[in-house]
Amino acid sequence: MDEPVLLTGAGGRVGQAILRGIGDDYDWRLLDREPLPAAKVPNGVTDADRYVADITDERAVREAVADVGAVIHLAGDPRKTAPWDSVLRNNIDGTQVVMRAAAEAGVEKFAFASSNHAVGGYETDERTPDLYRPEDEYRLDGSELPRPGNLYGVSKAAGESLGRFYHDEFGMSVVCVRIGNLTKDHPPREYERGQAMWLSHRDCAHLFDRCLRAAYGYEIVYGISNNDRRYYSIERARDALGYEPADNSADYTFEGEPKPDRDTETNGGRYAVGADSSDATGANSPDAGDAAPAEPNFPTDPDAPSDDA
């Protein structure tokens, strides 16, 4: 892609996984509510391409999307316990502002960070915990209706509907990625649900790279690695985007330690196991671990999950 790519929420966990994986491959514009430290900014991104703004600021957002070819929209309140006034302003109104500005500016592609919480209601007492185990055959594939498990999930389902509208009305290509449990270096430890929806940093970067490169209309896909235990299908991401994840939570023990006999030629050797592409730029970052920090300007959530993408 010759035109710049706007990344909102660039300082968050998902944004940093993307930038550390494919930061050298695109001409970026970075938008965040807080100034980004140099360690979070890829080489070559100038001060003029860094925007400190709230996504509900229509003027600032219009300036940021001018002449870009694609948008990856991550910004919002990531807390699964976020109150309605916050998800309404930051996740619904904010997404509407960014999508409308992108559509009116003629942006070609828009990747929206949806969430597993948009369909959390399918995890019923009757289905769990078997749902999280390899032998269970139940799958969500993106064709099902949203079934949010909390108000945060409601806001993500609303974002998916906005994407459908802006695709139909403006012809903008929109892909909604229902992100699973993003952790670096290892799956969530001793957490069946998290291991079933694990998304490694390098697979996250690869998935959003495919969102920028592939041709599509409107899609809903699941953002998880190639886990043996999973109840989200990644077939649509493979077919529509060319997504080929490298990692598998089954290559780790339940405690999150690498198994000694894991396949060192995962995915045909596209990635060397242990060489996480999230470190490709050489930037140092703390392990995301099993807890999700709040985004800048949002209060710390004592119940913050690791699967809040």
For this entry, give a set of tags.
309 residues, alpha/beta, Rossmann fold, 7-stranded parallel beta sheet, two-stranded parallel sheet, 8 helices
Strand content: 5-15%
Pick out the low-confidence regions. 264-306
Counted up, domains total 1
Helix content: 25-40%
CATH superfamily grouping? NAD(P)-binding Rossmann-like Domain
CATH architecture: 3-Layer(aba) Sandwich
Strand numbers in spatial order across the main sheet: 3-2-1-4-5-6-9
What is the level 1 CATH name? Alpha Beta
In CATH, the topology is named Rossmann fold
Which secondary-structure class do the elements indicate? alpha/beta
Mean pLDDT score, rounded? 88
Radius of gyration: 18 Å
**How many helical stretches?**
8
What is the total tally of β strands?
A: 9
From the N-terminal CA to the C-terminal CA, the straight-line distance is: 26 Å
Q: What is the global morphology? A: globular
Q: Outline the biggest β-sheet.
A: 7 strands, parallel
What is the element string, with H for helices and E for strands?
EHEEHEHEHEEHEHEHH
Model description:
The chain has 8 helices and 9 strands. It is an alpha/beta fold. The chain has a single domain, classed as NAD(P)-binding Rossmann-like Domain (Rossmann fold). Helix 1 links the parallel strand 1 and strand 2. Helix 1 crosses helix 6 and helix 3 packs parallel to helix 4. The longest helix has 21 residues. The protein is globular.
